[in-house]
Inverse folding.
């Protein structure tokens, strides 16, 4: 069959993110299918219309990576553009239209109805191959685990148990766009998340149990990306060190296989072996992005985080001692937040030197999370609340505006205290530096 895979994401703040998921979807498809990938960062609507006429796809897969940008201070609802795209595709093509992706899996029935597609893939993208094979053989695609048809309801399937094989990007317009804008491609070392954070839909998407990729295989893919032109890699795991021993094994495999480009990852500021970040640095790690969320002990308990403020301070010290660039992401405005807990976080933040802070104010409520159940119990939402559009939790004892004012007052003119991703100013600076040939996320230039 002729299959067209679309990545409609065009967000570039603070920098464009390569559509990793479509590489796994393409690799899962049988060799007899013809596959084209279109990335809206490099292909406009006119070029897509021409491709629809020349390629005449029989199945179109749309990657729904994000529902919105989860930022209460600058909220963007992305599905409206996706729905318009589906409508336009209907006018241009008779192909079966399928939606999937991490964002789609959070609310599959609601999103499928909103977009007006024919089918949805719930869970990991490799299930798209099951749908394609069913169509090719004249079988009912909805009989396959994880394939949702319009108007139906289904329980989330078990996490994908098959092989996780990636098709490496070839040189061309798509990869060149990312190589010109920061040189960054991305990498995955495992799926699933063993943490139980109150607000996070990640376990709903990939499951609670780690499925580890063999460290040598991770390194082989990393070297393959390097050979394809990547000058920087970002590891997309929810937390690279959620399995400490596996992350150490991956880092050592990078060295064995000769990876020579720098990389970064998300890390949890948990208790770590004393030389942990020295091993990371020796393997080429340059950027550590900590999902710290709060430095109030009571808020970390409320968020069900597997660490407390002392572990954060020590993890920061260790990373800085290894001469790594460090950033901390905070998520303020959850259950129990008040002026005192915000002040508690800000006081301890002052102890973290040579770093950048990203403050996200307001927590998006997603179905299937502990926050959803708590918001129901508190009457913040009810079972009929439509969570398709961005809906943020409102703490009882402080408003989100008051939290932002409290942060702004403390931050003063310091450039390393950023609300959200830094807005248009930070994005413009990073894009300018990328255009000058600099690589990586570059937030370290804001560190104080």
């Amino acid at each position: 069959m002729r299959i067209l895979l679309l990545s409609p994401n065009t967000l570039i703040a603070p920098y464009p993110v390569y559509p990793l998921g479509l590489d796994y979807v393409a690799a899962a498809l049988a060799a007899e299918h013809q596959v084209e990938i279109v990335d809206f960062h490099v292909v406009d609507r006119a070029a897509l219309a021409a491709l629809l006429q020349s390629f005449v796809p029989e199945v179109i897969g749309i990657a729904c990576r994000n529902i919105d940008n989860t930022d209460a201070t600058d909220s963007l609802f992305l599905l409206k553009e996706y729905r318009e795209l589906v409508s336009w595709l209907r006018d241009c093509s008779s192909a079966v239209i399928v939606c999937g992706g991490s964002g789609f899996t959070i609310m599959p029935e609601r999103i499928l109805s909103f977009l007006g597609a024919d089918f949805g893939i719930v869970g990991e993208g490799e299930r798209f191959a099951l749908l394609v094979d069913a169509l090719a053989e004249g079988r009912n695609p909805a009989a396959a685990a994880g394939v949702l048809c319009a108007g139906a309801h289904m329980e989330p399937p078990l996490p994908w148990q098959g092989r996780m094989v990636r098709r490496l990007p070839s040189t061309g317009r798509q990869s060149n766009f990312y190589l010109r804008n920061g040189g960054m491609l991305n990498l995955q070392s495992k799926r699933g998340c063993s943490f139980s954070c109150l607000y996070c839909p990640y376990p709903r998407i990939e499951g609670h149990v780690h499925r580890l990729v063999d460290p040598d295989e991770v390194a082989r893919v990393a070297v393959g990306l390097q050979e394809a032109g990547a000058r920087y890699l970002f590891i997309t795991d929810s937390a690279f060190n959620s399995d400490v021993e596996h992350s150490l094994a991956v880092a050592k495999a990078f060295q064995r296989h000769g990876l020579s480009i720098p990389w970064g990852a998300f890390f949890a500021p948990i208790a770590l072996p004393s030389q942990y970040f020295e091993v990371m640095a020796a393997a080429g790690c340059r950027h550590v992005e900590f999902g710290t969320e709060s430095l109030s002990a009571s808020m970390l308990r409320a968020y069900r985080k597997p660490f407390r403020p002392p572990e954060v301070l020590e993890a920061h010290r260790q990373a800085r001692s290894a001469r790594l660039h460090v950033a901390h992401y905070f998520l303020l405005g959850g259950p129990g937040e008040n002026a005192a807990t915000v002040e508690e976080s800000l006081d301890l933040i002052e102890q973290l030197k040579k770093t950048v802070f990203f403050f996200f104010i307001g927590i998006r409520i997603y179905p299937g999370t502990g926050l959803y159940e708590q918001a129901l119990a508190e009457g913040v939402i009810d079972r009929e609340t439509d969570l398709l559009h961005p809906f943020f939790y409102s703490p009882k004892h402080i408003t989100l505006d008051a939290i932002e004012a409290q942060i702004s007052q403390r931050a003063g003119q310091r450039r390393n205290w950023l609300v959200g991703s830094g807005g248009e100013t930070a994005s413009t600076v990073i894009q300018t530096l990328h255009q000058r040939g600099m690589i990586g996320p570059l937030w370290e230039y804001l560190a104080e």
In short: The mean pLDDT is 94. Residues 79-92 form the longest helix (14 residues). The first strand starts at residue 2 and ends at 7. DSSP finds 17 helices and 15 strands in the chain.
